[in-house]
């Protein structure tokens, strides 16, 4: 069956617009739109047969959808007008009737070169939006996806998140990184948690979120940290890396210096953030994946006083021995019970007086610092307690540095600049 025979069978099914006619042969040529292709085919058939039915009427396949491109375009532009964006992509959710009509046409005509209706609609509406707004189509990672819902006769938006990298310093103890919901009421509020639904009054994520929502107009913020310090530990030094995932932002470009200042003001010296920058989604994985080496400062008390030389020798041995840690008792309820092998990079005695000492330890990420000191009832071997021959307990713990992985991608995609 040649092309004109197939075209005639298509037209025999009923009135069809040039877009729907040309789309049935979209894979046969380039350089023409489906509308131009359909008009050419219709003209050739009319010359051969001179039949009235080959003149364009209301299309039974798309039901006049391609005559309403401007209507759908304007709906999309109106919906987009509330948002700041650089790139977009159009998608279509076809109605049952349109999908059925298209399948009937393919079956009856026998065409094998057709393009789906929604592909053409996406392209044509996308071109119109681009020409009227000056925004760019992005097939890989658009800021906003515009969905033409033919069944509900409306436009829907999927506003993709923005990502902000930074570092935080936690200046006081007793603050978790994210909300800890009350285990008694699971966040509903009860007498045990004074009807707050939380175990702690605030968290790092809660201190950061309000200024981010204010500047971005987002609907929510997900906090992604490079690990976390204990609640009773401070995070000092250069700070701990994090990425904020801002959901459905209305504004994608704002002053990050202003955001930094707003967060630090809102936190009231509980935390400080720095080095804020826009990044790609990949930064979340880069920050969260693997274990970054850390530098800890421990304030330690020993059950019995020990000679300085003995403590220094024990610290030296820690750096030369693989540390075998079974999951600590304090986190066994939420971590897999297994043995982890970790390394201590360096261990330095900074100060010592009677039965107290201050030491700095740089260790492989994932090593439990408190248990390295106490031994955790023999679950960590060797431990400082074991090596000095007396119980040692951590009085104070500060994280001084979290060393970032060199592979972390911490710049925004060039297409989005």
Structure in words:
The chain is α+β, with helices and mostly antiparallel strands. The protein contains 12 helices and 15 strands. The strands form 3 sheets. Strands 5, 6, 7, 8, 9, 12, 13 and 15 form an 8-stranded mixed beta sheet that branches. The two termini are 52 Å apart. The model has no long low-confidence stretch (mean pLDDT 91).
Q: Give the name of the CATH architecture of the largest domain.
A: 2-Layer Sandwich
The helix/strand series, from N terminus to C terminus, equals HHHHEHHEEEEHEEHEHEHEEEEHEHE
Report low-confidence residues grouped into runs of 5 or more. Answer: none
The description of the largest β-sheet is: 8 strands, mixed
Ends distance? 52 Å
What is the residue-averaged pLDDT? 91
Number of strands: 15
> Structural class given helices, strands, pairing?
alpha+beta
Whole-number tally of structural domains: 3
Count of alpha/pi helices: 12
Described by the principal axes of the CA atoms, the overall outline is elongated
| % residues in beta strands | 25-35%
The CATH topology of the largest domain turns out to be THUMP fold
The CATH class of the largest domain is identified as: Alpha Beta
Proportion of helical residues: 25-40%
CATH-level-4 superfamily name of the largest domain: THUMP superfamily
